[in-house]
Design goal:
Layout lengths: L4 H12 L7 H13 L4 H9 L12 H16 L6 H13 L6 H6 L12 H9 L5
Helix pairs in contact: 1-2, 1-4, 4-5
Length: about 130
């Protein structure tokens, strides 16, 4: 799968807004993550005001949930710095995807800031799936 930063940012925005609103803290973190990934404030503002639909979160397969989680963590680590607020945000989004919070720490161990460095995704996916809520 090709890593499309803007498309994954749109997913992140949709996930943040899945409770019908994007809180100020969520918006600021999305802006921070976008800036670290070379996406302009104007582009983010446009996505925030008019996010492209991704479909129902409930209709995502476990594989799709994992892919979004993986890319979310990759976006978070892209700038080489990870702040506690970003981790908390990722845990929040992971929960919206149906995972327990601990999945962020588990998957983060195997995701690198450089997208060209890849972990054994099948192994990481198997670890992540164990964190899905029943």
């Amino acid at each position: 799968m090709i890593f499309d930063k803007k498309a994954e940012l749109n997913v992140l925005i949709n996930l943040a807004a899945s409770d019908k609103t994007v809180a100020d803290r969520e918006s600021k973190l999305i802006q921070t993550i976008a800036k670290a990934n070379g996406i302009s404030k104007e582009e983010v503002d446009q996505l925030l005001s008019n996010p492209q639909p991704i479909g129902s979160i409930n209709s995502l397969t476990n594989d799709e949930k994992f892919e979004h989680l993986y890319f979310l963590i990759q976006l978070m680590k892209m700038d080489g710095q990870v702040f506690r607020s970003e981790i908390v945000f990722c845990e929040h989004i992971a929960e919206k995807l149906g995972f327990k919070k601990g999945v962020v720490a588990e998957v983060s161990q195997h995701v690198y800031s450089d997208p060209s460095i890849t972990a054994d995704r099948d192994m990481v996916k198997q670890k992540a799936i164990k964190y899905l809520k029943a």
